[in-house]
Structures are given as structure tokens and as C-alpha cells.
């Protein structure tokens, strides 16, 4: 990812993904942003929720792919927030 695509990615996360996740009672954290790799963590209502994979496949992945189609995306979920993660 270039600096421009990282900026676009952060904009999509902030303006589209995070509000949708919050509206459903969840929280989304950025764990790591590296060239061609994004690591996120879902918490709040999504901690242990069997519907979390549906949110990842139906909302998060398409939004990320719209600005970074080749980036590897890792999404975890749970009550424990990874060290150094930033709330979006």
C-alpha cells in the first residue's frame, strides 16, 4: 500500500466501516497497517458473536477491497484488545 492508499483505507475505516460497526454495538480497532497488510480487531458486541464473520465478509472486506484490492486482511475478535491497537 502506498501512503495515498493508506490514507484512503483509514478514511474508509473511519467514515464507513466504524460507524456501521458502532451502530450494531461493536468496536473496531486497527492492530497494524503495513504495506499490503491490514490487521483489525472487532470487540464490543462482536466479541464471541457468531455473526462476526458475516460482518467481516459482507461489510469490512468489500470496503477494504474498494481502496486496497490486493492487501491481506486479518480480522480477529474478542474481549481482549491486542496491545497497541487503536480504536477507530
Structural class: alpha+beta
Low-confidence parts, pLDDT < 50 over ≥5 residues? none
Mean pLDDT: 91
Shape estimate:
globular
Order of helices and strands: HEEHEE
Instruction: Report strand order across the widest sheet.
Output: 3-2-1-4
Give the total of beta strands: 4
Helix content: 40-55%
Number of helices: 2
Q: Report the end-to-end length measured between terminal Cα atoms.
A: 19 Å
Structure, described:
With 88 residues, the protein is α+β, with helices and mostly antiparallel strands. It is 42% helix and 28% strand. The chain contains two helices and four strands. The protein has a four-stranded mixed sheet with strand order 3-2-1-4, covered by helices on one side. The longest helix is centred in the first third of the chain and has 21 residues, at 3-23.
Outline of this structure?
This protein has 88 residues and is of the alpha+beta class. The protein has 2 helices and 4 strands; from the N terminus they run αββαββ.
Amino acid at each position: 500500500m502506498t501512503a495515498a492508499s493508506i490514507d484512503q483505507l483509514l478514511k474508509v475505516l473511519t467514515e464507513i466501516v466504524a460507524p456501521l460497526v458502532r451502530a450494531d454495538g461493536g468496536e473496531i480497532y486497527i492492530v497494524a497497517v503495513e504495506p499490503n497488510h491490514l490487521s483489525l480487531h472487532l470487540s464490543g458486541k462482536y466479541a464471541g458473536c457468531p455473526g462476526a464473520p458475516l460482518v467481516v465478509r459482507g461489510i469490512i472486506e468489500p470496503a477494504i477491497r474498494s481502496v486496497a484490492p490486493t492487501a491481506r486482511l486479518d480480522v480477529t475478535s474478542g474481549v481482549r484488545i491486542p496491545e497497541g491497537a487503536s480504536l477507530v
